[in-house]
Input
Amino acid sequence: MVKSLTEHLWFEIPDRRGFVNITSTVEELVRKSEVKEGLCLVNAMHITASVYINDAEDGLLHDYDVWLEKLAPHAPASQYQHNRTGEDNADAHLKRQIMGREVVVAVTKGKLDLGPWEQIFYGEFDGRRRKRALVKIIGE
Output
């Protein structure tokens, strides 16, 4: 019998950019779903946010922040045509494109099937307002 669970995780990052490790929350949702074999999708529901998998190491999170700001600096905002619409978040759109929209993780024996250092993160690139990520778990 196929089971499924859909939940939304809500975030309100106080700064323009930030990263949140959501692995334990997603693991709890997998337990709640009672799916033993299946798939877990986690995706950002906003075009200036990301969900990705990587190591949960503070230095790496700092390095991501610095690297992304070098690739798509926020200032000067006038460098982006998108910002001529009254927005100031063109850089956030570009950062999201680099970091990705979603992850899909296998569920095996009722647990997320992650590698030894893999963790799931929500990345925010245009914060200071409420946003969400979707978690969809489906399987047997």
